Amino acid sequence: MSATLFRARLLSFTRAPEHIDDSGSYRYESDGALLVDDGKILAMGDYATVSTSVPEDTVVIDRRPHLILPGLIDTHVHFPQMQVIASYAANLLEWLNTYTFPEECRFVEQAHADRIAKAFFDEFFRNGTTTAVAYCSVHKASADAFFAESLRRGSLMIGGKVMMDRNAPQGLLDTPETGYDETRQVIADWHGKGRNHVAITPRFAITSTPEQMERVQALAQEFPDLHIQTHLSENHDEIRYTCELYPDAVDYTDIYAHYGLLGRKSLFGHAIHLSDREADAMSEAGAVAVHCPTSNLFLGSGLFPLRKYQRRDKKLRIAVATDIGGGSSYSMFKTLDEAYKIQQLLGERLNPLESFHMMTLGNAEALSLSDRIGTLEPGTDADFVVLNAAATPAMALRMETIRSLAEELFLLQTLGDDRSVVETYVAGRSMKPTA
Ligand code: GUN
Ligand code: ZN
């Protein structure tokens, strides 16, 4: 296969921006070239320079005036909840019991899981998201469907069979032993196959007995390189109930710490209402708090104190995510738009450079995967998106008055959605579905 040279404007972050004019936090090429071959980025730079030293048979794809960014990364989603989005519930626990658990029961059927897996990848690529960290259902069939589809599409995905052995319908329960055995089987079948990564996935402390948590701990010890994902401190009723179920723990975070689940590969969905002690424990372990803005607003869970967590002496590592289907949009633009509004309500600012850093390099760093994704650096995987900030009449009109890159990014975040994603490339292959 010959190399491909993409000509467009290019943007790739190199570190977290400190303010809205922080041009030292990214590389921007106004007439850029991205050289791609065999699923990898070979070169990134200005067109005049890069184009002089490419192989003779290189194909040139001209995407000017569009903007190429690394593929977007979503660090917390529920693959079996595509048909749960827009369910009318008063709060998290009602939403789980009334809509979400019954829906997830359907994933015992391989055919259903296979069908939703196809729709899932279509929808994520349509929105420019090339890596997602997904909860499958409790059924191994759901993890098989998810990873098989990822392998077919060549994507870097992280996923896990959910472990849950209480406080849910019978059709959604495993046991400490079957949860352990099936997770081991999912790891054997899928971890490292293609670009797939398996995550150890206890749903949350409410749905796992102490006996199951002990088996989760055993998995974490046997597979210390794997990601661990769960939920933490999302809703006040959830926190109260959790602490009743684990009366010996000093707080919610301490439950996970007790079972050895706090570490640099641990992703804690929501983490909105942490005490100082909990935030210290998270920070000392290097664990990641995953902010899910559209979900937190949709379920009325609370306002994520982003700046408070970033300003403490013991800072938290933070990622950002859609949390489909508690979340209400597949778009990382919409997700960061809501994150911006949450900070407005807290009297804080979230500038667009930070937002676009978070959905690319920031999330890659939170996943300890920035040597592969979240950047356009040569040597990394060729996952990238082609964006058009003038994709709709309203955006085109506003674009007429845009004067800077930061303003353009803010427009993309505020009015953009899947229509602004012209193309999505996964390992160098065009993947955006047309319908
Ligand atoms: N806590 C436990 N399970 C879930 C879930 O599926 N969605 C959300 N938002 N919170 C949870
Ligand atoms: Zn979740």
TrEMBL record:
Organism: Ciceribacter naphthalenivorans
Pathway entry: Purine metabolism; guanine degradation; xanthine from guanine: step 1/1
Gene designation per UniProt: gda
InterPro entries, per the entry: Amidohydro-rel, Guanine_deaminase, Metal-dep_hydrolase_composite, Metal_Hydrolase, Metallo-dep_hydrolases
Enzyme Commission identifier(s): 3.5.4.3
Function: Catalyzes the hydrolytic deamination of guanine, producing xanthine and ammonia.
BP-aspect Gene Ontology terms: guanine catabolic process
Presence of keyword Hydrolase: yes
Signal peptide positions (record): none
Gene3D superfamilies referenced in this protein's UniProt entry, alphabetically: Metal-dependent hydrolases, Urease, subunit C, domain 1
CC annotations in GO: cytosol
Protein name: Guanine deaminase
Cofactors that this protein relies on: Zn(2+)
Molecular function via GO: guanine deaminase activity; zinc ion binding
Cofactor binding notes: Binds 1 zinc ion per subunit.
Family under the similarity heading: Belongs to the metallo-dependent hydrolases superfamily. ATZ/TRZ family.
Keywords: Hydrolase, Metal-binding, Zinc
Catalytic activity reported: guanine + H2O + H(+) = xanthine + NH4(+)
